[in-house]
Amino acid sequence: MMYWKLSLRNARRSFTTYLLYIVTMTILLGVMELSNCIAVVGNFADFQTISLPLLIVVIQIVLVEYIDTYIFRQRAKEFANNLLLGMQKKTLTGLFLVEILLIGCFCFLVGTTVSYGLFCIGTSLRGAYSYGLLYCQSVFDTFCCFCVIEIVCGVRLKIRMDKLQIRELMQEKGRSQQLNPNDTSTSWGIAFLCSFGCLIACVCGIVYLPQAYVIYPVAIVIIPLTISIIAFYQWIFRWLSAYRRKSAVSIYQQNRLYLTAAATYNFRTAAMVNAVFCMCFLFSACSFITGSFMLKPDLQLMEKTAQYWMGTAQLGICIVFTVIYFSILALQQVIEFHQNARHYQLLGWIGKSNRQLKMLIIQQIAIRLTMPMILALLIGLFCIPLLNDKINKLLPPSMHNALLHDAGVFFISILFFFIGYFYVVFTMSKVYIPKKKTR
Length: 439
What we know:
The chain has helices at 2-13, 15-44, 51-74, 76-84, 89-122, 131-163, 166-171, 186-208, 215-220, 222-245, 256-264, 267-294, 304-339, 341-349, 354-370, 373-394, 402-429. The chain is mainly alpha-helical. It folds into 2 domains: 2-174, no CATH class; 231-432. The longest helix is centred in the last third of the chain and has 36 residues, at 304-339. The model has no long low-confidence stretch (mean pLDDT 79).
């Protein structure tokens, strides 16, 4: 009981940290509930969308592990002090995991309730099935996904805590990921160029091969796409980490050193997270374009009602991935601002003006929100014109260049999302700028 009271007291001291954690988990579980509502509606309309929740589970395991690691590192020194006071490591680990689980259950209740309510408000079920059946099925599916995520992330967190000794726990909050001297960016760059070349070859095969053979590049195109995304961000972040260690004169100009150090502080984690968000962005774009095609009255691919539900589901999937992309990236940046609040004070003390600090914050937010888009935009630049020519041959003249039109609409929509989230994060970041008079 004494340990439990001590844990609660320390948790209250970390209120801001836990508030960020709760908001992040609530958004993730709300998005999961929304995806399961879409999947249940799709099943009732006789088309399968089970791959959507499974894909989001994989993405959320990566993201939940990231925020679990964040909150663990924030409290690592406190855990070391508890061990010095005589607490057993098993007791400490158990209390922390129970704490995380209880917070997760609270976020589950809030996230599923709000998300289900928004889904029912924004859609019409047309009497095909009851709201009660939809609620029970979607919440049960979300609960199963929540259990899988908590078990996987909890086991990995327990293994990590068991390995660390008191001295390592003391240093955990400030620990950065070191680049192995033998781990160069060149191999990842070669892997990216090869896989990206294979991706372009698959797209060219889809466009130019006879109709009977198109199925083969379609079946394997996801493989070079996934490899190219992972290899690209591993290459970029390893190159940036090596560039920072070269101590080139150019890195000391403007804010390059600070921005590069912030980006490569945990470069392996950053590379994987950016790869996941790049996939989110691509899935969002594909879902938007597919849904737009399904809802076009001139295009008849299946029975009218089924096609309507398919189009609606695809647009819902687009919203899900877009919300995941911008919300979690924005929360990541807010978390980083909270962690580095003292850095901005130090920069102010050594002569940085408020205007310069605001410009630094603007650069950080812009980099955070656009970094996962870089490869997605490059892929779209190469693939969309080729696929547009192919689709024009299959559609009536009235629908020519529909792919280019829908891609443009998606880009404009993303621009509005970007501006909105950018403004919100920048407004929240102002509290970390030291209050002082500018000369």
